[in-house]
Amino acid sequence: MKQSFPLLILAITLTACGLGRPKDVLPQDKMQAVLWDIAKGGEFVNGYIYFRHPNLNRAAVNQQVLNQIFALHKISKKEFDKSLEYYQRKPDLFVAMLDSINTQQARAKQDTAKGARGDSARTAAPALSKPARIPK
User: Which residue, of 26, 46, 82, 135, has the greatest Cβ tally within 10 A?
Assistant: First the structure.
């Protein structure tokens, strides 16, 4: 009986973990990385692309950047949408991800500000993992 108790605890733990997130929903760390890249992509598009090319079709540019982010993370729009819906129904998880992203953004802005003061040899401004192609 003493030997089977740890196995019973392990079985219950594994079963409980399996009942959590569905298989077709992105893990929390991957979803957070995708949301972080979407936030950075939005800043890039709004602060650079639209500033330099104000007459571009904004919906098309936004969709192109999103598609590039999805390709970078090897996910589909359907996977992202399903995952986003799942995490929005789990406010504790979703808020934790958003808080972490806000912290990352604050750190990135702080690092950028340090770079503007002359520390650019040590820090670089945050950028998309892959640069977005600017339509002509």
Answer: 26
